[in-house]
Amino acid sequence: MLAWIAAIALGAPLDPVVRVVVGSSACAGTLIDEVGSVLTAYHCVAAGGRARLVTRDGRTVAGRVRAWDVAADLAVIEAPELAGGAWLPVGPVPEVGSAVTVVGHPLASELPTGYFEGLQRWAVSSGIVSAVGVRAIQFDAAVNAGNSGGPVLDAHERLVSVVSRRLPGAGLGFGPRSESIAEVVAASPRRMGLGGQLALGVDLGLLSSIDGGVAIGPRIDLVVRDRLVLGGTGQLPIQPALSAARFGTASYGLGGVHGGLRQRVGHGPWTLRVEGLGGLAAVGSWTGAVEGERLAIRTRTRAYPWGGGAIAVRGVRFDLGVLAEGTWRVGVGLAWPGTLAVW
User: Fold this and answer.
1) Helix, strand or coil for residue 315?
2) pLDDT tens track, the chain, 343 positions
3) Domain boundary at 186, 214, 240, which?
4) Can you tell me the distance from the alpha carbon of 114 to that of 331, in angstroms, rounded to the nearest whole number?
5) What is the C-alpha separation between 98 and 140, in angstroms, rounded?
6) In this structure, are 8 and 136 located in the same domain?
7) Could you tell me if 153 and 256 lie in one domain?
8) Quick one: 166 and 310 in the same domain?
9) For residues 192-207, b (16+ Cβ closer than 10 Å) or e, as one string?
């Protein structure tokens, strides 16, 4: 009961908290010293690219990742332009039952407008530490997408963890122990490694030939440093035998492998991803022929080199490519379920 009362009464310093924008993702971070070091979650910066830090008074500065710990999901961003501002010290591992406050930007990848104007940024939620593990702590303060990287503060306004994971619907958040924070803060500066992410989506494609049909299936992409794209697709044709029976022949893209380069245009949720791609595509042909009184369907699969490009915004992508044998392929995809892992 006393811990609950303390959690409600607990204030939270907001000025040391910043928004961390990398590409289309938006997280939170905390100034932890007088020279402009910002602590956040590693998965917020794993995609690579320059980090943009937005302060509470609206100032935007560029930052550079100088240290990280993938296993602990921690990263330190160097931002000299923020030197001299308010900052928060790192505290000890909290005890079970102690009050904590979380500060971040829940669901605020975009600027809230209308009814939500002025909300969802620098928002505070309180709770208690419900468990302390070997590598992480568990707390029941409400966290949502956008809280990632934000500080978990104790009653003395010390940073005791960083929001790393949550269990949707369970009301539980998780973050690394403060010993891991101290280690990554003390680490020697180094250049950002080959971080990246693994993403899964759904892809629908149509061949431009007269007998071309529609196929649908999963798409997987491994993106390194938000620049190098490697992946593949596997697609199932929609009613190929029926089309072959009606029109004599039917051709479908069955998937393939691809690789290429990505460039982002703009920042925030409406950032545009432009990709130049190439690879091998599998094309299946269905032929219907009457043999006696029966209709026989024959299939054949061939692989063709292809080249093209794609644009994507807000999880929707549009592909256009040309196969070596002259057929165009038009595709549309949806990033669902989206990012599976970061590394």
Assistant:
1) coil
2) 444 434 434 446 899 999 999 877 789 999 999 999 999 999 999 877 788 999 999 899 999 999 999 899 999 999 999 999 899 999 999 999 999 999 999 877 677 778 888 888 899 999 999 999 999 999 999 998 889 999 999 999 999 999 999 887 778 999 999 999 999 999 888 776 667 889 999 999 999 887 888 999 999 999 988 889 999 999 999 988 888 888 888 899 999 999 999 988 876 667 889 999 999 999 999 988 766 667 678 889 999 999 999 999 888 999 999 998 888 999 999 998 888 877 7
3) 186
4) 35
5) 11
6) yes
7) no
8) no
9) beebbbebbbbbbbbb
pTM > 0.70: yes or no: yes
22/168 same-domain check: yes
Type and span of the H or E element at 291:
strand 272-291
Q: Tokens 């891991």 — which residue?
A: 180
**Structure tokens belonging to residue 78:** 């160097």
> Of 144, 166, 186, which marks where a domain is finished?
186
**Phi, psi for residue 151 in degrees, rounded to 5:** -80, 145
**65 and 85 housed in the same domain:** yes
Tell me which residue range forms the domain holding 55: 2-186
Number of domains in the chain: 2
Both 202 and 165 in one domain: the answer is no
Three-state secondary structure call for residue 185: helix
Kindly state whether residue 44 falls inside one of the protein's structural domains: yes
- Residue 278: count other Cβ atoms within 10 Å of its Cβ: 15
